[in-house]
Design goal:
The chain is α/β, with parallel strands linked by helices. The protein is built from ten helices and twelve strands. The longest helix has 16 residues, at 145-160. The chain is globular, with a radius of gyration of 19 Å.
């Protein structure tokens, strides 16, 4: 794609920065109070990282850096109240959309709303910059520096903090959803489950274990279109990284239904899902008898939006945001039910430059 051809898309998505700020200021309606009743400290299935027993950092949000592949990378770390460095905590990765700063992700997703019910370590990393534009290299290219970065990031977190390595999750919107999808595909021994919002992908190149996935997408999304096209991961990688020199042999994105059907096949589900209308605007599609839970929420007439976080002033450009479900609550409920089985040893020999082929 030439720079001239990319310009209309850049003009559209640059407004996402302002949208993210507005989403961050929008509280999640009905966020639950109270403590999660599953105590990992006394669960014999907890996988404790090397950082367990180290002095805990103070609770709250801090800016952190690490060098990966020779490049200084930034991430925002959220340590919950009650973290003592002894009890292993799950990790939730929150991944930004194209053009959106990582600093907006925690409030956009609603980390603070979920912390009391589901105690977790929150991590919001930044993609590399194309000029001033943060993006993820979420395309299924064989040589992918962001996969190396996520391995390095998890290595750092597990060395410094007390992490339950069987419970590491990733969610994000748009380009962040695409990156979460790729993490589930290529780092399946380290990523427990994913929740892509407005950007689920699957390119039929995954060979690791079945990975639980819960996805959300609007049928009228004007940015990452439901039926394919729009700003999919390969197009973003071309605009912001390859600059017209797209590697040969990359697959084609055929849309949300095709992506989820392929996830279902990968997760060894029955081919025909059960679909239920749970609200006037929302259908839930659930695949049956899977080795890993596979669920899609379809928002009829929904736009490029996080369900449950409407920003009316932006609906003209990004489309309708439903309030009939709250994606954040559903995502954290889903994550709380998932962990990597003991038969899959965490990240044994896995790096970001190849597929995990442990199940083949």
């Amino acid at each position: 794609m030439t720079a001239h051809a990319a310009r209309p898309w850049r003009l559209i998505v640059v407004a996402v920065v302002v949208l993210a700020c507005a989403l961050g200021a929008t509280s999640v309606a009905g966020a639950s109070e109270g403590h999660h009743d599953h105590d990992e400290h006394h669960d014999r299935h907890v996988a404790r990282s090397a950082g367990c027993g180290k002095a805990p950092p103070p609770a709250g949000v801090s800016e952190q850096t690490l060098v990966s592949d020779g490049v200084l990378r930034h991430f925002q770390l959220t340590i919950p109240v009650g973290y003592d460095g002894k009890k292993p905590f799950p990790v939730v990765l929150g991944l930004h959309a194209l053009t959106v700063s990582y600093e907006f992700v925690a409030p956009m997703i609603g980390f603070a709303d979920m912390e009391k019910r589901y105690p977790f370590i929150g991590v919001a990393p930044s993609g590399r910059l194309d000029g001033t534009t943060p993006f993820w290299l979420a395309a299924p290219a064989p040589d992918n520096y962001d996969l190396t970065f996520f391995n390095d990031l998890l290595d750092l977190l597990e060395a410094r903090l007390c992490v339950d390595t069987s419970r590491v999750y990733s969610t994000g919107m748009s380009n962040g959803a695409q990156m979460s999808s790729l993490l589930a595909c290529r780092l399946s021994s380290r990523i427990t489950a994913v929740a892509p919002v407005a950007g689920v992908e699957f390119y039929d190149l995954c060979h690791g274990r079945p990975v639980p996935v819960i996805a959300f997408h609007g049928t009228a999304d004007p940015i990452v279109t439901y039926d394919g096209g729009g700003l999919n991961s390969i197009r973003i990688a071309d605009i912001d990284f390859w600059k017209g020199n797209v590697p040969p042999g990359l697959p084609t994105f055929h849309g949300v239904d095709a992506a989820m059907q392929t996830w279902a096949r990968h997760n060894r589900c029955d081919p025909v899902p059960v679909e239920v209308r749970i609200a006037p605007e929302v259908r839930r599609r659930t695949w049956q008898h899977c080795k890993a839970d596979t669920v899609l929420y379809i928002i009829d007439g929904g736009g490029h939006a996080w369900p449950g976080k409407p920003v009316p002033g932006f609906e003209g450009q990004f489309g309708h945001a439903t309030t009939e479900i709250d994606a954040t609550t559903l995502i954290f409920q889903f994550f709380s039910e998932q962990r990597i089985p003991h038969t899959h040893s965490p990240h044994a020999g896995e790096r970001g430059d190849r597929d995990d082929r442990s199940d083949d």
